[in-house]
TrEMBL record:
The keyword Metal-binding applies. Keywords: Magnesium, Metal-binding, Transferase. Transmembrane segments: none annotated. It comes from Citricoccus muralis. Its cofactor is Mg(2+). Belongs to the FPP/GGPP synthase family. InterPro entries: Isoprenoid_synthase_dom_sf, Polyprenyl_synt, Polyprenyl_synt_CS. Pfam families: polyprenyl_synt. The keyword Magnesium applies. This is Polyprenyl synthetase family protein.
């Protein structure tokens, strides 16, 4: 495929605008028109990193120029947006990227209608659930529509569905770990990250892009496995930034994960230090304030330890890519992806 990455991402943004415009014009109520308009504003200006991975997997295996790769990239972006909206509800966050979430917009509407704060927040979260649901439905529809006549169409649909189910399983683990259910450790948290984040953000985009281009199933699976390691590394760095990052840069409060008692890689690493384990236990039981945990994380150098685990994930991804018959250009592009991940928030 001769289309450059920049042109591809421009085409994805154009197609996404058409999807939103169509839904705005065909929605059955004024309220749904407003919701789709808000969704449209939410997806404007995104980095499109997941569609870019669809494009990379597709180009790696020299996909034909008339394949519906743009629509497939749009579906992946809509899926990501759905999970972002749902994640904000689950985490009870009203700020993302320094601005109000979709839930916050509906909360503020309710406050203007003189609802009390508790009821207004319920309205906001309810709207967030519904917005995520319609985005999931649209993403699934778009995948079916775009690949139904493709040789690997059924496999692509199955891979897309699998990513949704995996992410739900990982999100459930995340929620339950935060409530004290189960006995999480580093291995279980890494598996949670693979399910929740890597499956839909890295594995599926690379896999379905490769399959659309005609790559054999086992080769596409190898590429997806390398993507899994990248996705886990990405989420580890996200955990680091969620606690130690600059909120002005990340757009996320640095006390959110600690406040919600989320069992991240940072917590798992701290728990493995015998002297710090009682601090972790007290924090999980709600006995210690979050500044005690932050002090412990700093004292034991957990940020640096977490970045080392992320580095190991990147090394494993590189090793997996070495076994694939990639062109030099494709290898160079994967190197850029890995390098960007390692520099993220550094």
């Amino acid at each position: 495929m001769s289309v450059s990455k920049a042109d591809f991402l421009d085409a994805v943004s154009t197609e996404l605008a058409h999807v939103i415009e169509h839904r705005v014009s065909t929605s059955g109520s004024d309220r749904m028109v407003q919701m789709w308009q808000r969704i449209g504003r939410m997806i404007e200006g995104g980095k499109r990193s997941r569609p870019a991975l669809v494009h990379l997997g597709f180009r790696t295996f020299d996909g034909r120029s008339d394949a519906p790769v743009v629509k497939l990239g749009c579906a992946v972006e809509l899926l990501h947006t759905a999970f972002v909206v749902h994640d904000d509800v689950i985490d009870r966050d009203f700020i993302r990227r320094g601005g109000p979430t979709l839930s916050a917009e509906y909360r503020d509407d309710a406050l203007e209608m003189r609802q009390n704060r508790r009821d207004a927040e319920h309205v906001g979260h309810s709207a967030g659930v519904l917005a995520g649901d319609v985005l999931l439905a649209e993403a699934i529809r778009l995948v079916h529509e775009s690949v139904r006549h493709e040789p690997a169409g059924l496999e692509i649909v199955e891979a897309f569905h699998s990513a949704i189910l995996s992410s739900a399983a990982g999100e459930l683990d995340d929620v339950l770990f935060a409530t004290g259910v189960g006995d999480p450790n580093l291995d279980r948290v890494l598996q949670m990250h693979r399910l929740k984040t890597a499956a839909y953000s890295f594995e599926a985009p690379l896999r379905i892009g490769a399959m659309l281009a005609g790559a054999p199933s086992d080769t596409a699976a190898q590429l997806a496995e390398a993507g899994a390691h990248l996705g886990i590394g990405y989420q580890i760095i996200d955990d680091v930034l969620g606690t130690f990052g600059d909120p002005d840069a990340s757009g996320k409060p640095v006390d959110s994960d600690l406040r919600e008692r989320k069992f991240t890689v940072l917590i798992a690493l701290l728990q493995d230090i015998p002297e710090a384990e009682p601090v972790v236990r007290a924090w999980r039981d709600g006995e210690d304030p979050i500044d005690v945990m932050r002090t412990a994380l700093t004292t034991y150098g957990i940020e640096q330890r977490a970045r080392m685990v992320a580095q190991l994930c990147c090394d494993r991804a590189r090793a997996g890519l070495e076994t694939l018959p990639l062109t030099e250009q494709a290898r160079a592009e994967f190197d850029v992806v890995i390098d960007d991940l390692q520099r993220r928030g550094a």
